[in-house]
Amino acid sequence: MLSDWRFIAIFVVLSPIFPALPVILNQLLGPRKPNYIKQQIYECGVETVGDTWVQFKVQYYIYALVFVIFDIEAVFLFPIAAAYGQVSLFAVVEIVLFILILTAALAYAWGRGVLEWV
Tens of pLDDT along 88-110? Predict the structure, then answer.
């Protein structure tokens, strides 16, 4: 039984190393030749006009998160709708619970005024 968990422990220990190793190697071995042109802000090949550091409203991100949540809901609900006649009663109850949780989250966000565009 302990040998089954050994692979998971190895994975947990080694998994942070794989993304960190290229970043560390780049910092250690990569060329460093900064100059004025490389330090300038580049946006689509067009010279920037005005201040380059612009603060965006948090509401843009909230709308994006709400969209992603309901987009994922549609991805999860599509297989259930496609195979509705073949799923068990337990699966239907789980999907109804899933929809109720997301509906409660939407009602909470709506009640807090998050979805009102200012």
Answer: 889 889 888 988 988 898 898 88
Comparing CA positions, the residue from 92, 112, 101 lying closest to residue 72 is 101
| Backbone angle region of 44, left / alpha / beta, with phi > 0 → left and psi within -120 to 50 → alpha | left
What does each C-alpha distance from 22 to 10, 11, 26, 51, 76 come to in angstroms? 20, 18, 6, 33, 35
Q: Express each pLDDT in 44-72 by its tens digit.
A: 767 767 776 777 777 788 888 888 888 88
Query: Fold for domain 58-111?
Result: Methane Monooxygenase Hydroxylase; Chain G, domain 1 (1.20.58)
